[in-house]
From TrEMBL, chains A, B:
<dbReference type="InterPro" id="IPR006367">
    <property type="entry name" value="Sirohaem_synthase_N"/>
</dbReference>
<dbReference type="InterPro" id="IPR042518">
    <property type="entry name" value="SirC_C"/>
</dbReference>
<dbReference type="InterPro" id="IPR036291">
    <property type="entry name" value="NAD(P)-bd_dom_sf"/>
</dbReference>
<keyword id="KW-0627">Porphyrin biosynthesis</keyword>
<keyword id="KW-0560">Oxidoreductase</keyword>
<protein>
    <recommendedName>
        <fullName>precorrin-2 dehydrogenase</fullName>
        <ecNumber>1.3.1.76</ecNumber>
    </recommendedName>
</protein>
<dbReference type="Pfam" id="PF13241">
    <property type="entry name" value="NAD_binding_7"/>
</dbReference>
<dbReference type="InterPro" id="IPR028161">
    <property type="entry name" value="Met8-like"/>
</dbReference>
<comment type="pathway">
    <text>Porphyrin-containing compound metabolism; siroheme biosynthesis; sirohydrochlorin from precorrin-2: step 1/1.</text>
</comment>
<keyword id="KW-0520">NAD</keyword>
Amino acid sequence: MLPLHINVTDKKVLIVGGGKIATRRLQTFLNEGATIRVVSPEASKEIEELAETGVIQWEQKEITIEDLNSASIIIAATNHPEINEWIAEKASEHQLVNVVSSAEKGNLTIPKFVTKGRLTFSVSTNGASPLLAKQICEQIGNQFDEEFISELNRMYEERQNKKRNF
Amino acid sequence: MLPLHINVTDKKVLIVGGGKIATRRLQTFLNEGATIRVVSPEASKEIEELAETGVIQWEQKEITIEDLNSASIIIAATNHPEINEWIAEKASEHQLVNVVSSAEKGNLTIPKFVTKGRLTFSVSTNGASPLLAKQICEQIGNQFDEEFISELNRMYEERQNKKRNF
């Protein structure tokens, strides 16, 4: 697994499933401006509300192969591992698929991460302990104070000015 | 930018350009088992040698629009920012493009990262200072000793056994 930072703004993200993990993943991508479609016979209250207000699209039905076509990123988060794995098998080679029931069946995992101003870092234990990854992430986050984050902003502005004057 | 961990094994990666940065990016993806094609009139010695031994494919020519088609990931790393930006514009919506001359023109950046056993973490300052990102990454890496990494391995095995016995 290679850590990459991806701009998912306006990227089509398909969430299959409507439970807790599906909802958490949805929020991660929604926060980054992705265009989200949920396919699931049932869904959490959050998903229901987001769909009602038109922030996301929710199709209340079982997943079919046609649903997979247009998404750049697919989160296979149903309660049925065999359905999740079927999604990973049927996805095209350009698509990124996160299989929540068994990460190694997909080609995408979502690490724990912290964003503080311009600083972003991610931690993954590659399946050893998501809880520990979260704790490590928080601990590392605490090592960077407001002053450091402001300094990063200043460095960024300076670098942009240099580029413009080049 | 959302930090995601992606399995690039056998993914088609197109490197446009053959200089220092192109070579460094190439090595990152090659280490992870990607299938690499370089398109560039000129290339570094490393690229030349890798192409000669058949580890990668190198087409000694200028980039054309047809070259972009089949890649899942494109690294636009020529010395000409306008060519790099043209690549980002012409890429399809499913493709991930890293524009080395101006990261914000692409939808993919490659953060500094460290892998120690099952632990992977990445650091990006989102354009403020790649050098500082590298230093932070090394500092954080030093906080985890061999014992911790072994413990992570043990936790992983335990978790896999639980899954199997479920």
